[in-house]
Amino acid sequence: MAALAGAAVCVVAAVRPTVCQERGLRRARALFGDAGAAGGPAPGGVPGACARERWRRRARGWARRVPGVWLCLPVAVVLALLGKSVLPLIGGVLAVPLVGRRLRAGRRRKAEDLRASRVLALCGAMAGELRAGLQPASALAAAAGSTGGLGGAEAAVLAAARFGGDVPGALRRAGSAPGADGLVGLAACWRVAVDGGAGLGAGLDRLEAVLRAERDQREGLRAHLAGAWSTVVVLAFLPVVGLAMGWAMGANPLRVLFHTPAGLGCLVVGGLLEGAGLWWAARIVRAGETV
User: Membrane spanning segments where (predicted)?
Assistant: First the structure.
């Protein structure tokens, strides 16, 4: 376990992005020539810095090319070598799709939050452009260009606004994307302003206030549930802590788990109970997030 922890720390340290001072030296040489860089590091230090920068670039490129989901396999290989069994390799292969699903869900949530923030900024910017005296179509185009709140539907919505098309319909279609629910409210405000002659700016101000209140409520709820998620993570790592304690006391828990009938039975039953417990706890926390 100590070797595994040390390897994990080394991997994190290798792929961590850092800012290299050699970039400033190269800029100085480009602007002022070699004389401008005379106050830099002593001769002999620059090649080492360049070599470190090259290795850091390769490590960052490797981290971008290799998804984090495949890190399950090196951990499985280490456990297989320590336990002298093929079972950790099978578990690592089975864990890849599960971890990938979790990572994709996290990326989807971040994309939804970003899209919601852009829609909120779009409503505020458009209200400001209307107060500045722009027409609705021009205000929508200016706000969309500065905030990106329309996303991939920007061209269709702006074309409808510029050429007299169905702007509310285009906004509702754009609002069907996850996290872009505010565009449906913008479509309703546009419809009311066009059909009833109501002020579009006032409606956008109220819509922005509602969207901001919903975002603050959502963020507050997530902050309150952070402790529950921490509990789930602690429960997930309790078996690892138990194995580490057994190893520290001089036992060989991996040999017992992988090479004895009783250990294999405990491994199967414990794995099933661990998975069921994590699934149930995560379900409870997610239910709290949707309240």
Answer: 68-100, 225-250, 262-282
Q: What is the pLDDT of residues 218-230, one digit of tens each?
A: 888 888 888 888 8
Whether the Cβ atoms of residue 144 and residue 122 lie closer than 8 Å to each other = yes
Going by the DSSP 8-state scheme, the letter that residue 41 receives in this structure is S
Residue 153 near residue 174, CB atoms below 8 Å: yes
- Distance separating alpha carbons of residues 102 and 7, to the nearest angstrom: 24
Residue 91 has pLDDT above 80, yes or no: yes
Q: How far apart are CA 211 and CA 168, in angstroms?
A: 18
SS3 content of the chain, % helix, strand, coil (to 5): 85, 0, 15
Q: Give residues with Cβ within 8 angstroms of 93, minimum separation 6.
A: 73, 76
Gap between the Cα atoms of 173 and 180, Å rounded = 10
CA distance 230 to 209: 32
Roughly how many angstroms between the first and final C-alpha of the chain, as a whole number?
Answer: 40
